[in-house]
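Q: A reviewer asked whether we had any structural model of the full assembly, not just the individual parts. We don't, so I'm hoping you can provide one. Inputs are below.
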Amino acid sequence: MTKVFTDGLSFALPLLIMAVGAIYSEKSGVTNLAIEGFQGFGAFIGALIAVLLMPVMGNGSQAVIYIAMAGAALGGGVYACLHALLCINFKANQVISGVVINILSVALTAFFTSSANTAISGTSSNKLILGVSTRFSVPGLSDIPYAGGLFKNMYPFEIIIIALVLFFSYLMYKTRFGMMLRACGENPQAVDAAGGDVEKTRWIAVIISGALSGIGGICFAYSLLANFSPSIYLGYGYLAIAAMIFGNWNIGTTAIVCLIFGFAKSGGYQLCIAMGLPSNYSDLFLMLPYVLTMLLLIFFSKKNHPPKAAGEAWDKGKR
Amino acid sequence: MKTKRHILSSRLDGKYASVWVSVLAVVLTLITSGIILLLMGKNPLTAFYSFLQGCGLAPKANYGGGSGMLSDLSDFLNYLAPMLLASLAFIVGFKAGLFNIGIAGQMLLSGFAATVIVGYNRSLPAGLAKPLVAVIGIAVGGAAGALVGFLKYRFNIHEVVSTIMINYIISYLTGFFINNHFVDMLTRTSRICSPESRLTLTGVQIAGVNCKVPFGIVIALIMAFAVQFIFERTSFGFELKAVGRNIKCAKYIGIGVGKSLVLSMTFSGVLAGLAGVTYYLGYTNTIIPKTLVGMGYDSISVALLGNASPVGSIFAAFIVSIFQQGANYMSSIAGVAKEIASLITGILLLYASCGTYMKMKAHSVILRDASREEQRKEEET
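A: Here is a predicted structure for the entire assembly that you could use as a starting point for your response.
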């Protein structure tokens, strides 16, 4: 039972940070289906830095992970500029742009991973081996029955993600910049009239979105997969978007939805083990988050209110 | 005085603007990927030529016994068929304003159903098995597409999110059944389907070399012209386009929007289903469990490069297929990882999606030049 909480949390938090990224972009008025591509590209840059640094700093050095996370945020942010350029400056269809970004990301990372492997180690593998991050337990709190699982065997990045989420929800709901960002997604004309710069605000929002997604991606690479390979494109970026939709574009509610996803996934897996089913059946349980997403979408999609101006290129002359 | 810039702009603003945008996208892609190849220390011209050689469009230096340029070409056509069908599937949805990202999943599901129902049934004669495979592809693909359209219309679920979720569900579900019931212990893929059910004849001797005869390419070309006809000449096609252009206007003039959404996704699914059976029971004869084919995404590049026109996509599918099908041979000749094929396709997609911007820019250049010309004339008089 405690394992359900432990694994659930370590799945839910990277998902949440990606969802926060998606919220930032959409609240500023740029529809963002490119989260999947951002997280993959960010994770690739982070993993590449980690692989290059590991021989220098010694294998198993934990500092590498933090540098990789910073690299992933940077990589995701830079890659997000492409989405911003297409959507904001070129006024391309934002859904097409998102899909293009995702496809290009898969192609870029797959190609450069095998090229980098050939250059570094001479083998033509499509994986950058990272290993799994170390874990720690919070003394005292982890001894609580059942719920103690939340504090047991935590990855260090979980703490960083919680801090980042708190900071970015403060930025969005309590500061002048956050208010302007939200206004850009509802009524950009009003922002323009009030002297704000709509395009600049949207650029910043999309870059934040890319950076946060990149962090989410490298966390998955360091926990679930223990490597970077094209198999990082598991559709979790889309799960984050789905979480954002149920969460009604609100960071607090989205956090709850992410936790539900996380616990459903780990709960299903533990159930599979507890029932003593052969390992072949784990495929059926891996399906659970996607099925749950579909069901939740069916029940909650009608009621929500997306930002009004999301999906439209901003036209200064429009009334 | 006409500058180069002016000529390019007038091409991009004229009657055949869409064609010129696609040509420009291809040229820019070749330049960009050429630069990437140069940076890696490879000769881009050799690499591009070996793509053509790998597809049987240019002669290779030497051939193995029993094979020749014609056998490579037949392989290429065998690959082109599902690619064209898949891009038609995307176009049909796209015209109605829907992004069918689930083509790969719909292909997998229909291919799986046809393999299990017909492919493993050894008693069926070829004359019965082949049409049955196509019918199953149409039915299963259509049903999968209709579900997405229904979810969009009834529950307002964005089709990009729902198709991705359904992709993963299909991938795990079919993977589970293949691994438990239909797996070939040696290759870890599904057991091969019977030659009677396969939509491609293999080992046919033409001009002294081993060739494949893909029926899929005939189906694909017929479907391309059929889709063109439906959108240009029928009221059904007009209604779909109207919904895609402006959903409120379509509702106002009395088009059943819900019906149109579901029908266009069904039609899209039908084409994806056909692509699935021509891929899994034609191009290959087995299914790799839990793997979605990249063709589902490549078809989006094809559709956008072909300017969402069915006949245009024949040319676009041809170009994209050259990169995908020729990649293995190129990799062996030029020593570049074969993943570069997907990278080139991705860059192509990127430029193709900037088409609107290119046209807009060209239009503004022409307007500006025209106003300058006028000003000059005024100053003269």
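A: Points you may want to mention in the reply: Chain B has 15 helices and two strands. Chain B touches chain A through 43 residues (CB under 8 Å).
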